[in-house]
Design a protein that fits this description.
Helices cover 40% and strands 28% of the residues. It is α+β, with helices and mostly antiparallel strands.
Length: 318
């Protein structure tokens, strides 16, 4: 009887290759921080079709890597490169402005394959570089003091050809910190992006920040946090060094404030610890072996998402 039911379900849920690719992409793109390779392994095993898996992976990994701001070591050990849309030169080439190198990456394997010197047109003018490098130096100090194993970079996204005062330009500061500890059933990440617009006409710098915290705990249960916060601020245009100090103080203030609010929220959860424990997932018997149900069982059941704060991971990141 069970075999008949499975045959019926399989006949009712036959999926086209395009549908399988879209389903696989959904699971890959929604993998928690640091876990996409584990999800990919399961998806690949379930698909049992290398062409479909390759198509899904090639479309998913670049978006995942950029949205999670992953950091890859340069092959010549001269530094690291952040994978982000702000430094994307080509679909698999990313600029590291600190070393003036462009890294060519394998998105699916998440490694740098080789590097080349950045071309002049890929770098900002000397005038803009003064502001960018000063900002980079100050943000590196801040990140080293605040985020264990944190990485950061500063990019010019608009007006990189500006040669003198009198014109607008924009810098973007990216900060990424992570704690990946799958052997302890937990992973977490901090990502923040700061758009900094220098507006010469009003001698003002407008700052827009977006902070995102992700955490996943999966020992005998599955709990995930995905929290975001946005903010704005302004300051005056000053010399490169003075502007960098002022802007990093703004970033420090807003990030410290947001982390404090998360910690307050964490403390408020102690009185509902029994509810937290009751959220642990009891895995049901394996459903019929159709592609869709099998994928849901082997991946989704192991990665159930619930908004909850994981204090131990958060405190490790910051």
């Amino acid at each position: 009887m069970l075999e008949e039911d499975e045959d019926f379900l399989e006949s009712e849920t036959q999926l086209t290759d395009d549908q399988k690719i879209e389903i696989a992409k959904w699971f890959l793109l929604n993998a928690p921080a640091g876990e996409i390779q584990y999800i990919a392994k399961d998806v690949r095993a379930i698909l049992k079709d290398e062409n479909i898996y390759k198509k899904a992976a090639e479309e998913s990994f670049p978006s995942y890597n950029k949205s999670h701001l992953i950091c890859l070591e340069l092959p010549n050990r001269s530094g690291d490169v952040l994978i982000t849309s702000f430094c994307e030169v080509d679909k698999d080439e990313y600029l590291d402005p600190r070393t003036a190198q462009v890294a060519r990456v394998d998105h699916v394997k998440q490694v740098c394959k080789d590097v080349r010197p950045a071309r002049d047109e890929e770098l900002p003018s000397a005038f803009v570089e003064e502001y960018r490098s000063a900002m980079d130096a100050e943000i590196m100090k801040y990140v080293s003091e605040t985020y264990p194993k944190g990485v950061c970079s500063v990019y010019c996204t608009k007006g990189k050809d500006v040669e003198e005062p009198g014109f607008d330009f924009e810098l973007v500061v990216v900060i990424s910190a992570a704690r990946h500890s799958p052997q302890n059933f937990c992973n977490g990440s901090w990502r923040s992006i700061w758009n900094i617009e220098f507006k010469d006409e009003i001698q003002s710098v407008e700052v827009r920040g977006e902070m995102q915290v992700g955490a996943h705990y999966f020992e005998e249960g599955n709990v995930q946090l995905d929290a975001k916060h946005e903010c704005k601020d302004t300051t005056l245009i000053q010399s490169p060094d003075d502007s960098a100090i002022s802007l990093v103080n703004i970033i420090r203030h807003h990030e410290t404030e947001y982390l404090a609010s998360l910690q307050v929220f964490m403390l408020s959860l102690h009185h509902i610890q029994p509810l937290f424990l009751s959220c642990h997932l009891t895995v049901p018997p394996c459903p019929p072996s159709t592609f869709l149900l099998s994928l849901c069982y082997r991946v989704f059941c192991s990665k159930l998402l619930m908004d909850f704060l994981l204090a131990d991971i958060l405190l490790e990141i910051a």
